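[Q] Does anyone have a clean C-alpha cell version of this?
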Amino acid sequence: MSAPDKPSVLVVDDKENMLKLFSRILGDAYAVTTAADGERALGLLASREFDVVVTDIQMPGADGFAVLREVKRRWPATEVVLVTAYASIPKAVEAMREGAYDYLAKPFDPDEVALVVARALEQRRQRREAEGLKQQLAAAPDFHGLLGTSAAMRQTCALLTQGAARDFTVLLTGETGTGKELAARAVHAESPRKGRPFVAVNCGALPAELVESELFGHAKGAFTGATVAKAGLFEEAHGGTLFLDEAGDLPLAMQVKLNRALQEKEVRRVGTTQPINVDVRVVAATHRDLQAEVSAGRFREDLYYRLNVFTVRMPALRERREDIPLLAMHFLAKAGRPLEGFTPEALRTLTAYAWPGNVRQLENAVARAVAVAPGPRIRPEDLPPELSPSSSGGGPLPAESLAKMPYREAVDSARDAVSREYLVALMQEFGGNVTHAAERAGMERESLHRLLKRYGVRSDDFKRSE
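[A] Here you go.
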C-alpha cells in the first residue's frame, strides 16, 4: 500500500500494458490508482479527489474528454494530463483550452512522464497557495484601507481607534509610503466627525508663497491673481478633519501662523483682519524626525508640542513582512488583469526585500509585474530589477533605479546626497520631459522645475532628437 502522504494520481487507459507502464514510472513517488476505462474513472471521481489525473483520449465509451469535463466540474483544482497518439495532438490542444494542464504524445519517454506529472503537481500546489492567499485576504481585517494581520498593524490600528475617539490632534509619523493618509482617513472615519468633511493637503507640495492662502483663504485683491475671495482649507474642513500631510515641510513663518490658528481656533484670510472661527480636528503627518528638526531650528518647538498630542508611528513594511503576501495579492486584485497569483519564488523575493519605499513601493512593484508578466502567475523575473537578492539589503539604490521611485522615496532611500543623481536618472528616462517626469516623481511640475534648478540639472540637455 502506498504511503498516505504521497500525492495521488489517477491513470485512465483501456490498455493494460499502459496502466502497468504508468504504475511502474510513477509508483515510487506517487500513490497511483488505475482505471481500465473512462466509465470506471468517472465512478472513482464521483467520490474521491485526486491531485493529478492522467488519461488517454481515445477510449471506448467515456473518452478522455468526458473524464476531463467531469474532473473540472467536480474537482476543478485537479490537474489533468492527456495521453494521445501523435496524429491526435490537435485534439489534445483543444482539450487544453477546456482546462487540461498538458498532454503526452505517444511514444513518450518515461522521464518525460515523470516531469509532466511533477509540473502538474507544482501547478496545483501554486494554485492552492494562491487560493489560500485569496481566502486570507478576504478574511483579513480591513481597517479603512489599512490591511495586515501582523502584530505591528494590529497595534497600530488599535492606537488609531483610541486616538479617533478623543477630539484632539493626532500626529502620524513614519517613513514615506507607510500609509499615513489612509491612517488619517481612518481616524476621521472612526471619530464623531465622520459625517463631516475630510480635507487633505500635502504641505510639502505647496509653493511657500501660497501656503497661507491655501490654508487660511484670501480676500479679493489680496495679491496679484486674487480676482475673487476664496475660503481656505481650514474653512472647508469646518466641523470635520484637516489632514496636514508632510507638516514638517512647512516654512517657519507659516508654522507661527498655524500654531496660532490651532491655539485660537480661528483663521484670518490673507488681506483681511477679520477672524473666522473654525471647528477643525487636525491630523498631521510627517516622515521627518520633528524633535531633530526642532533641535536644528527648522521646526518650531511650540508647534511641535501642539501637534504632538497623540502620536502614532506607522510601521515600515520591513517591520511587518508577514503582511507582504496579503498586500501583494490585494494590489494584484486591484491591477485589473486576471492573473492567478505569484510563484513561491516571487513571494520569497517580495518578502525578503527591505522596501525603502514601503507599501507604496510594493504597490508600484506589483503593478509593474502585472504589466509585464506573460502569466498566469508573477515570477521573480517579472518584478522590478531592484528587488533581486543582491539589492535586498535595504541600502541605497543605484541612481538608474531611483527614477522608478517618487522623489521623496528616493531621498528617503539614499538621503540628499543622491538628489542630483535621481534627477539625472529621471530626466534620462523621460528624455527631458518635465511633465512626465513630475508625474513619475509624484510632485507638481513647478516643484520639479525648482529642484532641477537647485541642482543644476537642465532638462534641455536630455531632450531626444526626433
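[Q] Thanks! Anything notable?
[A] Residues 8-138 form a domain with the Rossmann fold fold (CATH 3.40.50.2300).
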